[in-house]
């Protein structure tokens, strides 16, 4: 029987950004009715507005923090600026979506310049409401350190897509 490889491991999300974890809730990320699947490519021109992020499997007494990062800055062959923060929403009630949370770092459009970048959405369960502090900068962000500083523990869900710079020919 063939073993199915975890796309978060194959895509080096687990390892480069996150420690190994077991998903305990389901997170659906959708841009203009296009759901994000691990490792699929999306064009930057299609992800210019905030995605809809739905959480299933929690309850209304649970609160979650959503983090979106690019770990491949400036380029995947030498990501010495890893990680760049694109978005943080906190206090998202379980069984709802990110619009019910508190945006503490506004959504920044993915703009990869060199190579294929991974854009990773990570969901953490909070211990209490209003306990997550935003970082000082988008640059040099570290998901593991952010989780430790805010007592978030391991992620409860994650998904990522790939994107690369669009040429004029690709946009047609």
TrEMBL record:
A GO cellular component annotation in the UniProt record: nucleus
Domain of life (superkingdom): Eukaryota
Protein's GO biological process: negative regulation of flower development; vegetative to reproductive phase transition of meristem
Pfam families xref list: PBP
Alphabetical list of InterPro entries matching this protein: PEBP, PEBP-like_sf, PEBP_euk, Phosphatidylethanolamine-bd_CS
Similarity annotation: Belongs to the phosphatidylethanolamine-binding protein family.
Name of protein: Uncharacterized protein
Species per Swiss-Prot/TrEMBL record: Protea cynaroides
């Amino acid at each position: 029987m063939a073993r199915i490889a975890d796309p978060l491991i194959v895509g080096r999300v687990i390892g480069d950004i996150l420690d190994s974890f077991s998903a305990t809730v389901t997170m659906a990320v959708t841009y203009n009715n296009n759901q994000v699947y691990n490792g699929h490519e999306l064009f930057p021109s299609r992800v210019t507005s905030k995605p809809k992020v739905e959480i299933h499997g929690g309850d209304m007494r649970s609160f979650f923090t959503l983090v979106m990062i690019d770990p491949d800055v400036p380029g995947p062959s030498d990501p010495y600026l890893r990680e760049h923060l694109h978005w943080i929403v906190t206090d998202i009630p379980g069984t709802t979506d990110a619009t019910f949370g508190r945006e503490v770092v506004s959504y920044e459009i993915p703009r990869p310049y060199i190579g294929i970048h991974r854009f990773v959405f990570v969901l953490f369960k909070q211990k209490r409401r209003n306990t997550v502090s935003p970082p000082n900068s988008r640059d040099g962000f570290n998901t593991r350190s952010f989780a430790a500083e805010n007592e978030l523990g391991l992620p409860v869900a994650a998904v990522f897509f790939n994107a690369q710079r669009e040429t004029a020919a690709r946009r047609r």
